[in-house]
């Protein structure tokens, strides 16, 4: 079976899976971060509930004062381990912002799993908080908060 050219879009997406081993909401082209018009504590609690419900996920560290959640995620079939870091904080406008970074531990590729993991988590958070809680990224000052960690 031959694949379409990169101009067709098929092979470029698949080949990315073999060249990337992480996903970051803070990176250009990464999954979209979230900004909510909801209290920090409600977003924090929903994220911890989501992490707790995931089979094969282990909460490694949480610090509500820093707004930091660290999780070890295992892909059951292949036993691949990934690290997921979630930051929750108030931005300059008092809105709750969620950023995430997921990286494969011991391999140079992730088969797109880290991007999908972050996307699923954020979509679940959107549903849990309700349709009117999420604000578009184009909110003035929404980028005023910088999550800790590498850029």
The proportion of strand residues reads 25-35%
How many extended strands?
7
Order of helices and strands: HEEHEEEEHE
Protein structure class = alpha+beta
Approximate helicity band: 25-40%
Figure out the total of helices: 3
Distance between the termini: 38 Å
**Rg on CA atoms, Å:** 16 Å
Unreliable stretches, pLDDT < 50, 5 or more residues?
Answer: 1-11, 139-145
**Largest sheet geometry:** 7 strands, antiparallel
Overall 3D shape = globular
The averaged pLDDT comes out at 82
Q: Strands, helices and their partners?
A:
Blueprint: H1 10-17, E1 22-24, E2 34-36, H2 40-53, E3 57-63, E4 68-75, E5 80-90, E6 96-104, H3 113-129, E7 134-135
Antiparallel strand pairs: 1-6, 2-6, 2-7, 3-4, 4-5, 5-6
Account of the protein in words:
- With 151 residues, the chain is of the alpha+beta class.
- 26% of the residues lie in helices and 28% in strands.
- It has helices at 10-17, 40-53, 113-129, and strands at residues 22-24, 34-36, 57-63, 68-75, 80-90, 96-104, 134-135.
- Strands 1, 2, 3, 4, 5, 6 and 7 form a seven-stranded antiparallel β-sheet that branches.
- It is globular.
Q: Can you give keywords for this protein?
A:
151 residues, 7-stranded antiparallel β-sheet, 3 helices, alpha+beta
